[in-house]
Amino acid sequence: MDNNSLPKINDTTKAPVYSSLYPYEARAALVGVWILTCILGLVGNSLVIWSVILSKKLRTVTNAFVVNLSVADFWTSLSYPWICVALVSNESWPLESEVPCVIAAIQLYTGLGASLYSLASIALNRMVLVTQTMNTYSWWYTPRKVAVMIAMTWVCPCIVFFLPPILGIGVFGYDPQDNTCSDKDGHPRGPEYNLAQSVGLYPVPMLIIICCYTALYIHLKQHFRKMKKKDNMELSQTLSVDTTTRCQSHVPNRVSTASSINSVSTLQDSSVRHRQAISRQQLAITKNLFLVFCIFASLLSPYFISLAIPSSRKFALYGVTITVFNSCVNPIIYAVNHPQFKVVMRKIVKCRYSEIQEPSDLLKLLLSLRKN
Fold first, then answer.
1. pLDDT tens, position by position, 246-265
2. Which residues of 19-45 are buried (b: 16+ CB within 10 A; e: fewer)?
3. How many CB atoms lie within 10 A of CB 172?
4. Is 269 part of a structural domain of the chain?
5. Are 127 and 140 within 8 A, CB to CB?
6. What pLDDT is recorded for position 196?
7. What is the dihedral of CA 280, 285, 289, 292, to 10 degrees?
8. Is the predicted pLDDT of residue 4 greater than 70, yes or no?
9. Is 90 inside a domain boundary?
10. CA 149 → CA 51, 111, 136, 145, 291, distances in Å?
11. Beta partners for 183?
12. Angle, CA of 357, 363 and 368, to the nearest 5°
């Protein structure tokens, strides 16, 4: 068999020399951004993971996907130091071996893809939890099925990343055009590989997230509308009963009438406050869903659009720099703003492990060893 017909994941043969698309000054400035994102991503996602390890209270089905998201972002953040080395290099990988750059490319794309599919899994979980009955939710989210769902968030990106090079469509490693550890744009079928990544990693989770949050919003809007209608019906019935009672009374009773008026007034005030609370709750939910969607779209869309459009390749490095912020933003959205996560993470930062509610067996063991 001809050796040239064998599939190659990383082409180690001497490739043509390409000049960088970006000036050295711009790449040096981006290094600072990548290093900062790396530190925030590693620290933030570590806190999320350790919070679940040390507290049983956080071990819920939804948080299983949140932890998987943090693992994916932590895995992605590990690639950033090597990408920084690539950014400040000129024309070729500066180290003797290109293996670290190849590993960094694997971490970047598989971690980014797993993060995207984890976000979609979280959106799907929330939609089912709110819109379906508990029996339906319990049937879908058994421990075994949750494990399969989490595994698929990694399998799908791995297929998208590894299958094309195995079939001869693109290679990955040090890219001299972008000065990054990624897919090599100089490969004859490099544009096809870029398109495969853009189609395989972006539209599917994006569509799932949009559909789930849209369904969730529609369900909540209908729920609030029913609550408001029920509230108005109860108020109307109360007024009707009170009027009938007063009409049937043969002896006018001013005290009773005044009491009834006060009762109706109290009910009206209560109804108004209830409707205002519903409006505030609906507005808050709308803002949260809009925030999740906007952050997801604004951070990830530029890079994947640049992959799909060959003429925008010069924007790819800046696009992926925006995308990597996703690694450190996710812990803030899905953990820091969560009241239970926030409390546990604060205890960990302050080293007050004994104050963590519902400590895990591991934490109990560590606390007992510290006492001894």
1. 555 544 554 454 555 455 45
2. ebbbeeeebeebbeebeebbebbbebb
3. 26
4. no
5. no
6. 86
7. 90
8. no
9. yes
10. 22, 16, 16, 6, 25
11. 172
12. 110
| Highest mean pLDDT pick, 61-75, 178-192, 272-286 | 61-75
Q: Name the token pair of 355.
A: 């104050």
CA distance 251 to 227: 38
123-148 confidence digits (pLDDT tens): 898 889 888 888 999 999 999 999 99
Q: How far apart are CA 344 and CA 50, in angstroms?
A: 9
> Which residues have C-beta within 8 Å of that of residue 305, sequence separation ≥ 6?
198, 312, 319
Of 295, 291, 294, 312, the closest CA to residue 303 belongs to 312
Residues 6+ apart with CB under 8 A from 144: none
Tell me how far the alpha carbon of residue 318 is from its chain's centroid. Answer: 21
pLDDT of 66 higher than 50: yes
Helix (H) / strand (E) containing 246:
helix 203-248
Which pLDDT band holds residue 114 (cuts at 50, 70, 90)? Answer: very high
Q: What is the DSSP letter of 16?
A: P
Q: In this structure, is residue 228 part of a structural domain?
A: no
What residues contact residue 101 under an 8 Å CB cut-off, 6+ apart?
A: 82, 85, 86, 93, 95, 173, 174, 181
CATH number where 332 lies:
1.20.1070.10
Please, how many CA atoms are within 13 Å of residue 262, restricted to the half-sphere of its CB? Answer: 6
What does the alpha-carbon distance between residue 51 and residue 344 come to, in Å, rounded to a whole number? 6
Res. 266 pLDDT band, cuts 50 70 90: low
Residue type, 53: I
The verdict on residue 200 lying in a domain is yes
Where in the sequence is the domain holding 178, given as residue range(s)?
18-208+312-371
pTM of the model: 0.78
Number of domains in the chain: 1
Helix (H) or strand (E) holding 172: strand 172-175
Q: Report the sign of the C-alpha dihedral through residues 171, 176, 181, 182, in that order.
A: negative
Work out the pLDDT band at 329, boundaries 50, 70, 90: confident
pLDDT at 84 over 90: yes
Quickly list DSSP for 175-194. ETTTTEEEE-TTSTTHHHHH
Burial of residue 162 (CB within 10 Å: 0-12, 13-18, 19+) is: middle
- Which among 110, 111, 91 has a CA at the least distance from the CA of 174? 91
